[in-house]
Amino acid sequence: MIKFRQARIALTLAAAGLFCCGLLQAQISDHAIELGKRIMCTCGCGDTAGTCSHPGAAFSGPCEVAKAKLKEVDERIAQGQSDSAILDGFVQKYGEQILAIPPARGLNWVAWTLPGVAFSIGFALVILVIRNWRHRVALVPATQPHVSAEMLDRARKEIERQTND
């Protein structure tokens, strides 16, 4: 009976140890989560692996796909790989679509710079149009209707007559 109790205690301690080790492995470092924000989750949610949360779904929190990617990032950090080496490894494995921010080259460069260029050109055109309108208004000569002195005297007399009545 004593050996059975000792065996049960030993198994319980072993299970607790494995459970704690499992919990320690389940913990993802903050660095891995920050780096995971630069990698897309491929479950279809459209979030990054570091921000995958599935709000309104049957569960809340990162999905298994995001957890696996974060675990892989954490393992690579533990191996001493640099951030760029980790990201390059993911690009080799999944392609450039895994990156949350694609590199600025080729068509990606055009997609990143075109809105800024278009805004700058539009802003310059608005400034030019406003300056042109202001210039036109300044060039229009001020014309006054010609009123003779006789007409002014007649209008004053009429105003006096109407106010005296």
SS strand fraction: under 5%
Q: Count the DSSP helices.
A: 6
Helix-strand pattern: HHHHHH
Gross geometry? elongated
Stretches with pLDDT under 50, minimum 5 residues: 15-25
The largest β sheet comes out as: none
Question: Could you characterize what this model shows?
Answer:
65% of the residues lie in helices and 0% in strands. The chain has helices at residues 2-26, 30-36, 64-78, 83-94, 107-139, 149-164. Helix 2 (30-36) crosses helix 3 (64-78). The longest helix is centred in the C-terminal third of the chain and has 33 residues, at 107-139.
Layout of secondary structure:
Layout (H helix, E strand, L loop, with lengths): L1 H25 L3 H7 L27 H15 L4 H12 L12 H33 L9 H16 L1
Key terms:
165 residues, mainly alpha, 6 helices
Task: Give a quick rundown of the structure.
Helix content is 65%, strand content 0%.
